[in-house]
Amino acid sequence: MIKSKLLSIMLLAGALGAFSSVASAKTCSVEISGDDQMRFDKKEIAIAADCTEVELTLKHTGKLPVQAMGHNWVLTKTADFQAVATAGASAGAANHYVPKDDPRVIAATELIGGGETTTIKFSTSKLEKGGDYTFFCSFPGHWSLMNGKFKFG
To answer: How many domains does the chain have?
Structure first.
């Protein structure tokens, strides 16, 4: 009897602990668009410090196909931005112009063309509050115009 009550209490405590960790998770959503003039509609994205996950939606508001005017959204530390963008060209279209398995890439969407939309989710666990981050499109030639600041915290 005592063992059964103790087991019930332990199971309840475990369930409550699991619920509190789920309840403390917070997904923050953001949307950004790119167009046929190689522009993002945002130069800065700010995510609150209590966000544990980011859901980012990229919309291509242009009409040109992915082969001619493809866009993606890549996040790196600002110090890594240009090197990753340059390496993206060598990675090729099959890899969405993102260096494969590159630890400098925090998050990246697939490459999309005019009228298309893509969404990714990524954990904020790799981000430091107040860190220096840059987002950009790594399609060859786009990153110098299509970039902005990503702020966490």
So the answer is: 1
